[in-house]
Structures are given as C-alpha cells and as structure tokens.
Amino acid sequence: MSRYEDAAAGTAGGEGAGRAPAPGKALGTGRAEPVLQLTDVRRRFGSLTAVDGVSLSLPPGARHAVIGPNGAGKTTLLNLIAGTDRPDSGTLRLDGTDIARLGPGRRNRLGIARSFQQPTAVAELSALDNIVLASWRHHGTGRGLWRSPRRHRQLTERALRRLDEVGLAPVAHRPAGALSHGQRRLLDLAAALSGTPRLLLLDEPAAGLTDTDIARLLDVLARLDTDTAVILVEHHSEVVARFARTVTVLAAGRALITAPTREALAHPEVREAYLESVPAEETP
Ligand SMILES: Nc1ncnc2c1ncn2[C@@H]1O[C@H](COP(=O)(O)OP(=O)(O)OP(=O)(O)O)[C@@H](O)[C@H]1O
Prior knowledge:
- By secondary structure, this protein is of the alpha/beta class.
- The chain has ten helices and ten strands.
- Strands 6-7-8-3-9-10 form a six-stranded mixed β-sheet, sandwiched between helices. Strands 2-1-4-5 form a four-stranded antiparallel β-sheet.
- It starts with a helix and ends in an 11-residue tail after the last helix.
- Bound molecules: adenosine-5'-triphosphate.
- Adenosine-5'-triphosphate binds at residues 45, 48, 50, 68, 70-76.
- This is ABC transporter ATP-binding protein.
- It holds the Pfam family ABC_tran.
- Keywords: ATP-binding, Nucleotide-binding, Transport.
- Residues 1-31 are annotated as: Disordered.
C-alpha cells in the first residue's frame, strides 16, 4: 500500500496532502470552505468504471493538475465537475453548495468554467464576437444582446481586454476559423475566463500547441486571478510541473496519488503509470 493513499483518498492541498482532513477544511489552507469538494465520486459506463471513488478538496486559488495515462478517467472527471455528465454516486460541492443535480449552465453561472480538448469557438464569428457571446451567455441575460447597444458596448470593451490578456488583441476582428490552432485554444481560454470563474477546468490546453504557444499559455496561466481555482488535465509534463502546485494521478479511474507536484512526479508509481516514456533526465 502506497504511503500516498491517504492523500489520494482524501484531498489535494500541497503540504497538507497525506493527512486526514479536518471536517469541512481544504488541507494546507487553513480556510473553512474549499471551493470544490468531491467525495467518493463514481461513474460507470456499462461494466467499465471510468471514475472509481475519487475524492478531492481544492481551496480557492488552487493550481491542481490531474494526470494519468490515456483512458484513466481525466476527461470524465472534468465532465462530472462541469455537469455535462452525472456521477452514479458520490457528492460534489462548489463553495459548500451541492451541485450534483445542477446542469452545466447553472454550474457555469455559479462559477465553473471550462475549456475543451478541441477548440470550440464559432469559426464564422470574429475572435471578439466569440468572447462577447461567451460573456453574454455566462451572465444568462437570455435575449437582447444585439438589441441593447449600451450592453453590447460594455461587453465588447470587456472582451477586448480579455483578448489583450491572452495576446489576441491584434487578431480581435479576424474570424475564429482563420486563427491558428494555438490562437483558437487561447481564444477558448479567454472565453472560459470571461465570467471570472471560481473554478476553471482546462482539458489538455497544451495539446497541439507550438513551443511559442505553450510559452504564451504558461504566461496567461501565471497571470490568472489568484482566487480562481484551476484543475488542469494535461499530458505535457513540463506544463504540469511549471503550473501546478498539487497533482492527482489517476490510473484506471482511481486516484493513485494526490501530492505536491514535485513529489507526485518523482514517485516511482507515477513514472510507471504516466511518465514511463519520459527519460529520467527530462522529468521535472
Ligand atoms: N460516454 C462514454 N461511454 C462509454 N465509455 C466512455 C464514455 N466516456 C468515456 N468512456 C470510457 O471511460 C474511460 C475513461 O475515459 P476518459 O476520456 O475520461 O479518459 P482520459 O483519461 O481523459 O483519456 P485521454 O487522456 O485519452 O483523454 C475510457 O475507457 C473511455 O473509453
């Protein structure tokens, strides 16, 4: 039995990982309420258990990565948190509120934002209009975006600032479909940030990016609001090492380890399950 199993079963929380959590507290934070608390979450597809009793507690501002081999259950876990999928059992709380029965739109308005593995921006709309649309959707105003010039102007000004933050201001008026893959992924990130989320879920944001795009991505991530908790699902070990303070390693749906990043990436079980193909000298 791994000495990390307590942490994997209980919480993520940097230096606190490995201890039993005080009731209602995110380890290593001293704060009363975690932003996200998952308890014993399970999801089966027929005879396959994709997520098998995962528990996780993240404080505000967490920088947490979920890593693991293909098919480990990482995207399923994000789907369960975002509300696009429902667990068979277990509980999910956002800021103490039970969100298990809420749909993705409600969860989004409560502060959960996400970006997907594939770019999702509307190809025919400009980068700017994509962010305006995302922001309008987030605030749930339903109708009238184009009928209220004042509202539209406000959202446009805010959207331009968002694009500037991710380095896309120079292409603001270009159709999203004309942008490079890396630019479209940054556009998705800007869209996810348009509601200033409490919890940001990032599904392989570095996939398919050039080194220059990855540097830009890391720069954007480093400047995220310090109160926004982030769960990063990522295969790119350098991005994980540079961004995450804590890591959960999933293998066959189970949380193998939850620990501070350096400790998790150096552990032999992790190297076997996840970093097998990475030569020792490249492990961060
Ligand atoms: N809707 C579904 N129906 C049936 N099986 C599914 C469904 N979604 C996921 N699975 C299965 O659940 C397991 C976990 O899939 P998931 O996509 O969560 O893994 P992952 O860790 O994100 O993998 P990758 O790194 O390749 O994206 C896989 O075996 C997958 O085939």
